[in-house]
Structure formats: structure tokens, C-alpha cells
């Protein structure tokens, strides 16, 4: 036997492995991430609405700040919609796979 080749098997066995979390744990983590993203989107939308109302009522004179907040809310919403579409497309692709 070749000692160089035999040592390869020993190196493979010494590689540490990482245990993957349970599926329930993964589902909860995904749900928490998703909920956090939706909550963040909601906060940004509410902040934009409040600043727009304050500008319309004359309580705020800084149009620049209101426009930045409105654009931030718009971009965040558009990004969320695009992510939703990609997730649905990926789900549909998985469902079309033959097992």
C-alpha cells in the first residue's frame, strides 16, 4: 500500500461536520425573518404616511426629508414585491419537479 494514499482517508474522517438544525427550528427561523422584514416594511410605510400628512397639514416645512422618506418606502415596497415574486416562482419550479 502507498502511505500517501492511505493518509487521504484519515484526513477525510477528521473533517468536522456541522449539524443542521431541525426542520421545525428552520421553519421558525424563516418565519421570524419574514415577520421581521414585513414589520420593518410596515414601519417605513407608516413613517412615510405620517410625514406626508404632517407636510400636508403644514406641520413640517422640510419637503426634502418627506420625499426621501416616501422614496425609501416606495423602494422597500417594490423590493418586497419582487422578492415575493421570486419566492413564488421558486416554489412553483420546485412543485414542477418530478421525483
Describe the structure.
This protein is an all-alpha fold. It has one domain. Helices cover 81% and strands 0% of the residues. The protein has 3 helices and no strands. The radius of gyration is 25 Å and the shape is elongated. The mean pLDDT is 85.
Overview features:
99 residues, mainly alpha, 3 helices, elongated
Provide a count of the helices. 3
Structure summary, number of beta strands: 0
SSE sequence, one letter per element: HHH
Number of domains: 1
- In this structure, how is the largest beta sheet organized? none
Mean pLDDT across every amino acid position:
85
Calculate the terminal CA-CA distance, rounded to whole Å.
42 Å
Helix content: over 70%
What structural class is derived from the secondary structure elements?
Answer: mainly alpha
Approximate shape: elongated
The proportion of strand residues reads: under 5%
Radius of gyration: 25 Å
